[in-house]
């Protein structure tokens, strides 16, 4: 059986390195690698892309768009890990668990946009409730999220791990205060919302993992729902999924002392969804690894689906 040829354009970045680490262990794939001298060479990259079966774009947005101009082989499949194409209708959104239609589109696609990390958590919580017409598309949503510093890329990792780390880095730090975070458009578009949510991302002093939280006031829902009703909707929506699991109400028997830590799923492609609170005030939360289901893990899952393989291949153990 011939091996699928894979090229990672941007393999020196955080997501690219994570992808390389996951894929080079597999015996069903042949990785196309460029040496340091040719890593940014246009001719070498063009040849690598067009000789691949699947190319991952682990690049800044503008560079990802530019890379597409190098594609001449119409058979090459592209998985873009940047923000560039996540709201582009010509691309398929790479979150297979959202619906059967999403999964089938990925399987047949030559252009898949890999989801953002924060967006994955938000969309996993909100999309099913909007689809069930429980959450109105005009609901004024707020999203709070905390992530490890690896989400900031090589520059932020170096800052947090330096011997002279700034004093401020020892505490949680809020950012994107102007409500201009690059994941907002994706969060709105994929969920079919009329307005962008208020989004409060926070980076903290640990390497990887995140919790994305969305508070809901039941009196403003399109349909009156109890805590149990919301839990049932999410549970049914993700029934049978390997990587997305709905946990017990209020995290019973699954939380350590009632605390929802953000760093417990590091090194996995898992996402855990929590429905907490009471019938009047419902707190939804998604826990995942920003480098796993929030980036390279999801990219590997999409690769598997596009190649017609078991989606779990190479992901059960990172």
Mind explaining what this structure looks like?
With 318 residues, the chain is an alpha/beta fold. The protein has helices at residues 14-23, 42-50, 61-68, 100-108, 117-131, 153-161, 184-191, 227-237, 292-306, and strands at residues 4-9, 29-32, 54-57, 77-80, 92-93, 111-113, 142-148, 173-174, 198-204, 210-217, 244-246, 271-277, 281-288. The protein has a seven-stranded mixed beta sheet. Strands 2-1-3-4-6-5 form a six-stranded parallel beta sheet, sandwiched between helices. Helix 1 links the parallel strand 1 and strand 2. Helix 1 packs across helix 9 (292-306) and helix 5 runs parallel beside helix 7 (184-191). The chain is globular, with a radius of gyration of 20 Å. The two termini are 25 Å apart.
